[in-house]
Design a protein that fits this description.
Elements: E1 8-13, H1 20-31, E2 34-36, H2 38-45, H3 54-73, E3 78-82, H4 91-104, E4 108-113, H5 118-124, H6 131-134, H7 145-148, E5 170-171
Parallel strand pairs: 1-3, 1-4, 2-3, 4-5
Length: about 170
Amino acid sequence: MPIAEPPRLIFIFGPAAVGKMTVGQHLRDLTGFKLLYNHMVVDLVTEFFPFGTEPFHALARPITLQLIEACATNGASLIITHGLLFDAPGSRRVIEDWSAPYHRVGGEVFYAELSAPLDVRLERNATDNGPVTRRLSGRRPNVSVRWRIGANGTATATSRTRVDMWWSRMVR
């Protein structure tokens, strides 16, 4: 069946507790697009393997990509949220791999980066959409809230320090 209108992908990213899922939910309600927020896959896979381990990544990335490919191939517009660490070598690959299915079918891809000060993110972390109250299971690693949302200062979760912005449809 031919696709009447090219599907669209909106890729929302930013540091933990910045509001990616909340913005995604509002966009879903406004647009009717499907929403795949990161913790849908994280919560599923952490039922079996600890977050961040090799088996976790071996499952989470392909599951996410298969969902994205199925949506693109079937003409479904999609909003996806993900926390990227820009100093991690695989971040660019994630963006390219997850955007590719929409490019292959002639769809449009838009990128939105969210940011907020640390004190706001610490406060947001305890809201109804925050991981503390929303998560399905307690099988996440025992890591402090401040570390998970970047208060340790060891990871770059925003692109502001990057000079090589490799996408053209970026909204901040």
